[in-house]
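Re-run with default settings, no changes from the original entry. Doing this only to confirm the output is reproducible before filing.
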Amino acid sequence: MKKINQYDGKTVLVLGLAKSGTATADLLHKLGAKVIVNDRSPLEGNEQAEYLLSKGMEVVCGGHPTYIFDQKIDVVFKNPGIPYHNPLVQIATEKEIPVLTEVELAYQISEAPIIGITGSNGKTTTTTLIDEMLAADKKSPLIAGNIGNVSVEVAQQATEKDIMVTELSSFQLMGTDIFRPKISVFLNLFEAHLDYHGTLDEYGKAKAKIFFNQTKEDYAVVNADDAQVMKLSEGIQPFIVPFSTNKTVDGAYLKDNYVCFKDEKIISIDQIVLPGKHNLENILAAVAAVKLSGVSNEAIIEVLTSFSGVKHRLQFIGERDGRRFYNDSKATNILATQKALSAFENNVVLLAGGLDRGNEFDDLLPYMSNVKVLVTFGETAEKLMRTASEAGIKQLKHVDNVEKAVPVAYEMSESGDVILLSPACASWDQYKTFEQRGDIFIDAVHKLK
């Protein structure tokens, strides 16, 4: 990692722990900073806080007391999920103290160039595709960021021979100052996280920070089919490389049933294992990013003929008596379920339901023509059943949970059907995470007799 001294002797507040906060505090301590850690969870039973306390850091737990700012604070590193209306963040902003996230620190110490991927949907799939394509061509990628591997931990191990492939949320990008990826990828922009950002405009500005420090020596891979992405990329410094599923562009596109890059046919769409039109967008973005990184067509083909999806994201589980099972538990909103349903032509048995956020499901109606059976669970079960009835779906079943939904869906299906878990809702009414919900689905599929 690069040796930096800008934090030596500085007082740094790390706000919020979890994986990223703990790793950030640990690194800052190594870099010579006086680290103050604040986490709202009580100290008792907080293993991460106790670990940092044992390292000699000041740890304040159980809330966000403003007296922390009675002493001079030079920099704040906050957990991305902590909102900007948090009282400590507000004080820092008023005092014009920089408020950063750990991806900024990761960039500062990384010896490796960075490919940064952002967007409302498809980030994890695209990040994983880029990682696997680079690996297939022996390019030494290191996957990091919002995908589960903390960026500051990965960056400490990165060398000039590596490439950091980093998934980036709007929350993370808001807390950047000099962060500069060699290749940025902006997939799409839809209404999401408005409780955090306030408006779609502010959400888009946060995403567009991925471009801010790039120069003419860098690249920006952008979705030519998304008007908002194209507007946000107007006037940026990096060389723009577009991708499109609808037209020929000077980048990655579809033509004559082939994935192409700059007049070169790479692979027939029929050879690609990963289902769904939305995944073709992810594939094109990944192809553009890796071609700019010098990856061979052979490596791209190797990945696209074997990669069946990221876990919980339209993940193919297997086939049983002619039924194909897909786990799309990551579909925690209507838009994601729309995309999942669009991936299949007909005969879908849909498993859906979860946390009730007060919304209706009318936006699913145009996408339910291929659904023959709906099995619902969770708080939104009745709302989903009303929507399904409006869509003309005759076979409806309400069950207690995902585990019970699987055998019911199997009994109500027949050979040739797709059994799809795509809840269109968050999981928190019944499960801690969407991952837990998806794992229960997978387990239930494997238990079918």
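The domain at 103-304 is CATH 3.40.1190.10 (UDP-N-acetylmuramoyl-L-alanine:D-glutamate ligase). The chain has a mean pLDDT of 94.
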